[in-house]
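Protocol step 4 of 6.
Sequence for DNA repair protein RAD51 homolog (Caenorhabditis briggsae) entered exactly as in the expression construct, tag removed. Do not edit the line below.
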Amino acid sequence: MVPWTDGNSFDSESGIKPEKSLAREPPFLAARVIDREKTRGANLSISSDKINDAQGIYSKMSAQASRSKKSDQDQRAADQALLNAAIADNDMEQDENFTVIDKLESTGISSGDISKLKEAGYYTYESLAFTTRRELRNVKGISDQKAEKIMKEAMKYVQMGFTTGAEVHVKRSQLVQIRTGSAALDRLLGGGIETGSITEVYGEYRTGKTQLCHSLAVLCQLPIDMGGGEGKCMYIDTNATFRPERIIAIAQRYNMDSAHVLENIAVARAYNSEHLMALIIRAGAMMSESRYAVVIVDCATAHFRNEYTGRGDLAERQMKLSAFLKCLAKLADEYGVAVIITNQVVAQVDGGASMFQADAKKPIGGHIIAHMSTTRLYLRKGKGENRVAKMVQSPNLPEAEATYSITNHGIEDARED
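Step 5 output, structure tokens:
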């Protein structure tokens, strides 16, 4: 529960398990749950009538909110009352386990094998369906026959076939984008950081990479209609730069209870690349139990860069980095979270034409990280305390720039000198 300092509250736990209460879910999550539940046929844990009821209730709530002339404080209280009434009226079934992989036991898979799958990072049917048989066979104790049976069962519950462009358009229109704190930067991003994909932010020191991460750790907890993601933040820190006092200052800017904001940020320090991978596997377990909106890794390449230093280690480094990024992509796909990774840069000294460029720097990781990132932002220093963000890569946004500022309260619009 994340209360505002004015006494009203926003329940970040309301979206922990979509099956629990669709009436509490924003439209983009409700649609996602409906897609999943439709593929389950007779195994529906929530009837289609109840799902439709929940959608109808949410639509009525949204319409009423748009017509209301009340203050923000009164509106939040009214919305919370409507949410509570909707849940009580519908009397929806509440699955105690979002970890649907447990249902494999009813198909003949032993509880021991299910535990082995979880230890390897497989907690949902989606995670099983999205993997390959070869990867599944690499799990200790999972034979070829078991892997085949597990994959077959998982694919019954996950839609992996063709769909129409119109359906894809509808789903994309329901994606949530998380604001950054700067209106100019949000416009550059098409509304904010996109959920369900990886956004890479790279640049040299003091360009605002870590400050942007701190801002997103707070803003992701805001309600959807305030530019947030209505969920918790998972923050993996490789450089020991996470600062709770920065979180407190940013939370105060938005009149949020800083103590509860900090409680909703799961922080882990990654000490090496192997530990980093172990934390990502653990992240899957945590997300199956609670609602997260954002996963932040600051910095994603630091340990790989430090541990694999020679040219002879380059191939192994890229292979390990690729496996790590693939795990992050799976989290984005399975749980719909926004994944934000920061990256360092290196000067280009290859003797080519690039060395004569005004800003001859390139990000660490090469083509591997470029291909795995959906959106790439390059940050550089501007005039005074201002910084400049450049859209380098996006499947739907043009190359452009935005100026922002780093303040005591996080990322804000650029200051005029």
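Step 6, annotate. The radius of gyration is 22 Å.
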